[in-house]
Amino acid sequence: MSNRISVVINTYNAETTLEPTLKSVAGGLFDEVLVCDMESTDRTVEIARSYGCRIVTFPKEGCTCVEPARAFALQSAACEWVLVVDADEIVTPALHDYLYALVGGQNPPAGLWIPRRNYFMGRFMHGTYPDYILRFMRREGTLWAPHAHAIPQVVGRTERIPASRRDLAFIHIPPEDMSVLLAKADAYTESERVRRRERGEKVTFLRLLFKPAFVFFKLYILKGGFRDGTPGLIRAAYNSFYKFTSLAKMYEDSIDLKSIFASGAERLR
Questions:
Q1: 3-class secondary-structure state, position 57
Q2: What is the C-alpha separation between 44 and 22, in angstroms, rounded?
């Protein structure tokens, strides 16, 4: 059985974060580093080439999130095993060694959930850890749906790295300020809105009232976000707002706005 691993990185205008990511995976550490670029207009591709990465291109037009390019990048990889890394994440040496030992052993899982250590405004976010993501998998048979925050569908058994093994977690240091985060919240919840509309999901008054509040309580109190100072408070509030926005869009889809507008206009006559 092959124990070769491709690292796949999806990029779009990632020049400010890409180099630390590439330093953690390039230079022969893995068997291949593949960068799938979405028509960047900055130095992203130039930086990727300087690290010897193989580069493929996916058209940016019409994409509001990275997921449509995930499946293309995954299937473009040369190796049987694929580690998907974002352009603002760092792979630790311990994780590298763990993955090669895993695929070199007997009966490895087809997919692996990896914890992620998120940083926000310069602080490690206790409230979001372990933030498990399914990012290591066999290429063959894996499907990645084209909507925001999609979880890849892996054929076979999956396992999780224990949360206690923080040395094996991705280090995630996104550069976004609040303006970028708010723009992403609108784009990502719009993608989720379409998917949930197709599934016929509904939202009740109580869900709209209590779910965002629980998200804040979970991150800030239960998971210790209060230990992260003001950035921890802001992050918990942002995640709560994200959930509220997603639910509010679902509720909006359940009412007939055109009829309400027409009725109101009729009463004004």
A1: strand
A2: 11
Torsion of CA 116, 121, 125, 128, to 10 degrees: -60
- Computed over its alpha carbons, how large is the radius of gyration of the chain? 21
> What is the three-class DSSP state of 83?
strand
pLDDT tens-digit map of 93-122: 999 999 999 999 999 999 999 999 999 999
| pTM, entire model | 0.85
Burial class (CB in 10 A: 0-12, 13-18, 19+), 208: middle
* Sequence-distant (≥ 6) Cβ neighbours of residue 258 within 8 angstroms: none
Query: Among 240, 255, 247, 253, which residue's Cα sits nearest to residue 207?
Result: 247
Residues 6+ apart with CB under 8 A from 202: 250, 254
Residue 15 makes CB contacts below 8 A (sequence gap 6+) with 40, 42, 43, 44, 47
